[in-house]
């Protein structure tokens, strides 16, 4: 199997250096033009591809221009507007509720603190981290999506299992200045090589430092299951 570096800090540094070379233009893939659009897009992106979200938001952002438009929208109409998104009924409800709170409690502006953001409907720590980083230039944590969760475990960087515990663990070993890049690089690598079901280990820039490599390891450390 691949052999990770001796310390987790060294493993992180090596992985980030290699991925930075592999994906030099790594960045957020959601399209938006202001903080509210970013918030809406991230809410919609839960368990849905960014590609699908971008396609839906292209029309959505033309129809709804501000928080009041969403807050006053008919539930069924808004749900229909996003009906190709997973859990569209719930997300329509979240968006309407969040925008009402933005108007009533934040003067129509998307808040800029973790505590205020996570009080909005449909906004957990992951969503709040994205909005803070890309909407307010505030890097308060590491965004742990499914790619970050999967790959950080496969690489032996963490043994934690939940996004919250993984984020806490990563924040202790990833240099603060690389928190934002960490997420984008892992997402790009998860899409291009280290996919959930059939990772392309033979053409992976991290294969020699990955203890989950399918080339000579029997177990996927992300799931704890034997490779099929």
Automatic annotation (TrEMBL):
A Pfam cross-reference name: EndIII_4Fe-2S
Q: Which UniProt keywords apply?
A: 4Fe-4S, DNA damage, DNA repair, DNA-binding, Endonuclease, Glycosidase, Hydrolase, Iron, Iron-sulfur, Lyase, Metal-binding, Nuclease
Q: Which GO terms describe its molecular function?
A: 4 iron, 4 sulfur cluster binding; class I DNA-(apurinic or apyrimidinic site) endonuclease activity; DNA binding; G/T mismatch-specific thymine-DNA glycosylase activity; metal ion binding
Where does the source fall among the domains of life?
A: Archaea
Q: Binding residues for [4Fe-4S] cluster, per the UniProt record?
A: 194, 201, 204, 210
Domain annotation HhH-GPD: ranges: 44-192
The free-text cofactor remark is: Binds 1 [4Fe-4S] cluster.
Xref: CDD domains: ENDO3c
For activity, the cofactor(s) needed are: [4Fe-4S] cluster
* Catalytic activity, reaction form: 2'-deoxyribonucleotide-(2'-deoxyribose 5'-phosphate)-2'-deoxyribonucleotide-DNA = a 3'-end 2'-deoxyribonucleotide-(2,3-dehydro-2,3-deoxyribose 5'-phosphate)-DNA + a 5'-end 5'-phospho-2'-deoxyribonucleoside-DNA + H(+); Hydrolyzes mismatched double-stranded DNA and polynucleotides, releasing free thymine
Q: Kindly state a single biological-process term from the GO annotations of this entry.
A: DNA repair
| Enzyme Commission number(s) of this protein | 4.2.99.18
What protein family does this chain belong to? Answer: Belongs to the Nth/MutY family.
Q: Which NCBIfam families match?
A: nth
What role is this protein assigned?
DNA repair enzyme that has both DNA N-glycosylase activity and AP-lyase activity. The DNA N-glycosylase activity releases various damaged pyrimidines from DNA by cleaving the N-glycosidic bond, leaving an AP (apurinic/apyrimidinic) site. The AP-lyase activity cleaves the phosphodiester bond 3' to the AP site by a beta-elimination, leaving a 3'-terminal unsaturated sugar and a product with a terminal 5'-phosphate.
Protein name, as recorded = Endonuclease III
Organism this protein belongs to? Halopenitus salinus
């Amino acid at each position: 199997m691949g052999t990770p570096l001796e310390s987790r800090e060294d493993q992180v540094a090596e992985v980030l250096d290699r991925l930075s070379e592999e994906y030099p233009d790594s960045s957020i893939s959601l399209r938006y033009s202001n903080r509210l659009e970013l918030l809406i897009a991230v809410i919609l992106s839960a368990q849905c591809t960014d590609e699908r979200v971008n396609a839906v938001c292209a029309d959505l952002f033309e129809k709804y221009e501000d928080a009041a438009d969403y807050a006053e929208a008919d539930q069924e109409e808004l749900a229909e507007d996003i009906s190709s998104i997973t859990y569209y009924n719930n997300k329509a409800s979240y968006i309407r509720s969040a925008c009402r709170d933005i108007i009533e409690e934040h003067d129509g502006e998307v808040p800029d603190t973790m505590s205020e953001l996570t009080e909005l409907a449909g906004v957990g720590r992951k969503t709040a981290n994205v909005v803070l980083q890309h909407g307010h230039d505030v890097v308060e944590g590491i965004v742990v999506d499914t790619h970050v969760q999967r790959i950080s475990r496969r690489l032996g960087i963490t043994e934690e299992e939940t996004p919250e515990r993984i984020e806490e663990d990563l924040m202790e070993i990833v240099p603060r200045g690389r928190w934002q890049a960490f997420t984008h690089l892992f997402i790009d690598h998860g899409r291009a090589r280290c996919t959930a079901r059939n990772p392309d280990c033979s053409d992976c820039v991290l294969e020699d430092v990955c203890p989950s490599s399918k080339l000579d390891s029997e177990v996927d450390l992300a799931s704890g299951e034997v490779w099929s």
